[in-house]
Amino acid sequence: MTSAQMDDLIVIENLDFAHSYGAHQVYKGLSLRIPRGKITAIMGPSGIGKTTLLRLIGGQLKPQRGTIEFAGYNIPELSRSHLYEQRKRMSMLFQSGALFTDMSVYDNIAFPLREHSKLSEEIIETIVLMKLEAVGLRGARHLMPAELSGGMARRAALARAIALDPELIMYDEPFAGQDPISMGVIVKLIKSLNNSLGLTSVVVTHDVAEVLTIADKVVIIADKKVVAEGSPEELKNSDDPLIHQFLSGEADGPVPFHYRAPSLAEEILGAQQGESHAG
Amino acid sequence: MESRNTQLAVGFFVIIGVLALLFLGLRAANTNFSSNGETYKLYAKFDNIGGLKERSPVKVGGVVVGRVSKITLDGDYYEPLVEMTISKDYDEFSDTSSVSILTSGLLGEQYIGLSPGFIDDTVEMLDDGDYIHDTKSALVLEDLIGQFLFSQGND
Amino acid sequence: MLDRIAGLGKAVLDSIAGAGQAMVMLLRALIGKPQLRKSWPLLMQQMYSVGVLSLIIIVVSGLFIGMVLGLQGYTILVDFGAEQSLGPMVALSLLRELGPVVTALLFAGRAGSALTAEIGLMKATEQLSSLEMMAVDPLRRVISPRFWAGFYSMPLLALIFSAVGIYGGYLVGVRWLGVDDGAFWSVMQANVEWGQDILNGIIKSLVFAFVVTWIALHKGYHCVPTSVGISRATTSTVVTASLAVLGLDFVLTALMFG
Ligand SMILES: Nc1ncnc2c1ncn2[C@@H]1O[C@H](COP(=O)(O)OP(=O)(O)OP(=O)(O)O)[C@@H](O)[C@H]1O
Ligand SMILES: [Mg+2]
User: Fold this and answer.
1) What is the pTM of this model?
2) Which residues span the membrane (chain C) (predicted)?
3) Domain segments of chain C: what residues?
């Protein structure tokens, strides 16, 4: 138990979280460990709160209850300056990419380097070109973000997220919008970053097949908490119907595909019965 | 390179702003005295100062030589006392000089007209803090009309 | 009825909360040790987009307002034979009122709305979040340089506005309508005071600069990050900032010249 704790970079205990004054409970009693130096895949139905979880780890949202320990620091209780100190050790690839629209691709990737390192421009240039090469965008370095396609923007953002080689990288759907070739490249990239530098990676994704090839640990979130976790083999061999449904992508099963709402028939036929929920 | 052009543009912007300030300060506002340069003070008592105000100009033959710096009521009979701050460039007014309160134009502002007196061996020059005794008060329209009617009635 | 009162109460509470948020934002953005090496280029960049790019509209409006003042002033003053006073009339209206106020209103429309929209979009596209996650405080990085740029630019713009306006008044009054050249300037000089008029005008425009930039940044930073939210915030910046400028102008005028 204690040795496991030593090896966990992130330990989440008993987390409760609701957006905006408890209107919608996202997590209730979530506990989760993310092992150091490993790739952890987080899966779950859309809208279940995976992005929210990453933001909680990054300290951008505050939980109502529970602890989120990052390398021994309880993130929600850190002061502003200490939080910024810890954030220097992590990095996040946003679901939307979130490139700075007023800078070229090159400057976007150089940004964290210029901000947090005292490296000379030449060294920065070398690093930036290396990172761009890794995501196949070296030729696009002079383009502005508006001139990139969705998939290219995502890859540029990925290059920016890995620019500083932080201890923890959180990827929010890195594979979305990628063709099979770049998808393969990104999968390898995540794996090699993890292997060569010993980074801890958290990958939120829906691409089950891709992520199972590289993940050391898989966590499935549903119903406000972790419903299954283990190595890819354990999950594949599990005969839990829920895991089975999720890994093979069936709409019907223990995990509901629909956002909470009355049944379609009820809503259409019995429209007068009551107010309909927002979809 | 781009940031260099930006800096140049901003530099020009600041220069234009400073030039505007200089233009306003030198061309539009009076800078020739009062804030800079040496001054001395003269006093004059009037029966009535009309619409004279602090900062009203003191002119000699239309040329501004100073400004009214303070207006108070003085003595047992509460006579209006006007303190004038005059530029040191003009410090050769004689004892016999006179001041009157005049109006520029029909509706214009009121100012103090200073007429230098004659100079010979018998008169002294005015120094800082001296009083000008020969004063003529402001014309007040109502008084004028009253006088006019009074003199008509006498005829 | 009770609903109305509750609605009113909520509106009041919301605006107090908004003011509090804005205050916290500004304090966090401005307090702390400035890093000159990094913030200088950012400030330059913002001075450019906030100041330099507003120059044309300021110069054109200043010129026209000055010309209109010259024309109107002349037709009024000439009836009293006081067209000699055209100079001080134009200069004093510009320096005391129109320079600072019109510049602030134009600034709110031109630069303030742009600031709100830009920051709102940065929020909506998660650029602000992504700065935070890179351990770069968006308040220092994004808000603070924009604030100082607005604070420094607007008084400069107001001075330029007044100078150009006086020149416009001169063009119409002297060149076109034939007021005596010497009288125009000398009567102006006799009536315009450094401290009373020019300095007070500058103080006014510093206050307006502070308020307008602050409102614009606050509305952008705390907007609802959607297209509707951003467009509302932008409108609200122009409306709130303009009202604040006009209200404050009355207070300042009463304090300075009353
Ligand atoms: N700012 C917000 N205010 C209120 N509710 C929010 C907010 N952001 C997200 N939510 C809600 O929180 C829940 C979790 O959102 P989140 O973005 O974390 O989902 P997700 O698991 O990342 O989904 P996806 O896989 O589609 O990206 C959703 O039901 C959403 O409606
Ligand atoms: Mg998400």
Assistant:
1) 0.80
2) 12-31, 52-78, 156-178, 198-217, 238-257
3) 42-257
